[in-house]
Amino acid sequence: MKSFLIIGLGRFGRHMAKTLVEQKNEVLAIDIDEHRVNDSMQYVSNVQIGNATNERFVSSLGVGNFDVCVVAIGDNFQASLEATSLLKECGARYVLARASRDVHKKFLLRNGADEVVYAERELAERLAIKHGSNHVFDYMKLADDYAIYEISVPESWVGKTIVGKAIRQKYQISILATKENGHIYPLPSPDHVFKQNETLMIMGHQKDVQAITK
Fold it and tell me: Which pLDDT band, with edges at 50, 70 and 90, does 90 fall under?
C-alpha cells in the first residue's frame, strides 16, 4: 500500500483517486472547488478544500510523507506550475504532473516535476492505434517507438510453434503472454503452438509490429 496526494479533482484527478482507493492505497485529495470536493467524497474518504498555490496550506499537508504527489490540475497551467514548485520546495519525494502541451511539460519538469503525463494525448493515441488497426486489440506505450500490443495471431503462424517460426530472430518482437477465453498465460514456452482463437501480448518496435499486423 502506498500513499498519494492528489491535487485537482477534475475528471483525471477523480478517476485516478478512485482507482487508487480501489487498489487499497491511502489517498488525500485536494481541490479549491467545494463542489468537486463534495462530489469526490463518495469514493475518497480523505478529501479537503484547499488552494495548492498557497505555501502555508501546502506546507501543512506534510507532503514529504506521501510516496507520490499528483498535480492533476488541467484547466489552469499557472496554478499547476506553482503547485508543482511548492510541492518540491516542501519536500515532496516524487511529483507526477499533468500537461496538455509540450511547452507545459518543459516548464513543469524545470519546476520540479519528476514525471509529466499527457492524459488526453496518450488516451487518444492508444484508441487510434487500437481502432485504426484490424489486428490490434490493445496497446500500451513504453517509449517513443516501443510498446506492448495485444494482437491476433497472424494466419501464417497458426499451427506453428514459437521456436519453429523463429519469432524473435525473424520478426524482432518478444511474446510476453498468450490470451485465450479471457485467461492470460505469461511467458509461453518455445514449443507453444499458435492457435486461431488466441491473442498474443507482444513487445516490439512500432515498425516491426506494423509489419506483422497489416
Answer: very high
**What does DSSP say about strands 26-31 and 47-49: parallel, antiparallel, or unpaired?**
parallel
* pLDDT tens per residue across span 56-79: 999 999 999 999 999 999 778 999
What DSSP line would sit under the chain, residue for residue?
--EEEEE--SHHHHHHHHHHHHTT-EEEEEES-HHHHHHHTTT-SSEEE--TT-HHHHHTT-GGG-SEEEE---S-HHHHHHHHHHHHHTT-S-EEEE-SSHHHHHHHHHTT-SEEE-HHHHHHHHHHHHHHSSSEEEEEE-SSSEEEEEEEPPGGGTT-BTTTTTHHHHH-EEEEEEEETTEEEES--TTPBP-TT-EEEEEEEHHHHHHH--
The whole-model pTM stands at 0.67
